[in-house]
Amino acid sequence: MSKDFAALYAELAEKARTRPTGSGTVARLDAGVHEIGKKIVEEAAEVWMAAEYEGREQAAEEISQLIYHLQVLMLALDLAPEDVWRHL
Ligand SMILES: N=c1c2ncn([C@@H]3O[C@H](COP(=O)(O)OP(=O)(O)OP(=O)(O)O)[C@@H](O)[C@H]3O)c2ncn1[C@@H]1O[C@H](COP(=O)(O)O)[C@@H](O)[C@H]1O
């Protein structure tokens, strides 16, 4: 069963809280907002290129990675999903 936005956020929040060894998420949080922001821009560009040239399946994968990095930024800023949803 694949995970959804809420399940991934809960998983990442738990990683941020418990800081398990080897977690890429913990390393990204430790690198800080500047590095997370650069990764978001990179992933957004990959979404664009995949959508324009690489097809739906590749675009879906790149979109999932962009969502992951957006969630890391949310955790870095202590933003819960509800803090974002209320702007929708
Ligand atoms: N869903 C993701 C996920 N999507 C993307 N990424 C990261 O984003 C990278 C994709 O970026 P690129 O394609 O640019 O790969 P890259 O050039 O090697 O990127 P860099 O690692 O150099 O930044 C992947 O290599 C991962 O490091 C993710 N890392 C983790 N998760 C999930 O997050 C959860 C927690 O992961 P850990 O914190 O590592 O335990 C697990 O369920 C993981 O499956």
From TrEMBL:
Catalytic activity: 1-(5-phospho-beta-D-ribosyl)-ATP + H2O = 1-(5-phospho-beta-D-ribosyl)-5'-AMP + diphosphate + H(+)
Species: Naumannella cuiyingiana
Alphabetized UniProt keyword annotations: Amino-acid biosynthesis, ATP-binding, Cytoplasm, Histidine biosynthesis, Hydrolase, Nucleotide-binding
UniProt protein name: Phosphoribosyl-ATP pyrophosphatase
An annotated Gene Ontology molecular function: ATP binding
Annotated localization: Cytoplasm
Pathway(s) the chain acts in: Amino-acid biosynthesis; L-histidine biosynthesis; L-histidine from 5-phospho-alpha-D-ribose 1-diphosphate: step 2/9
Gene: hisE
Family (UniProt): Belongs to the PRA-PH family.
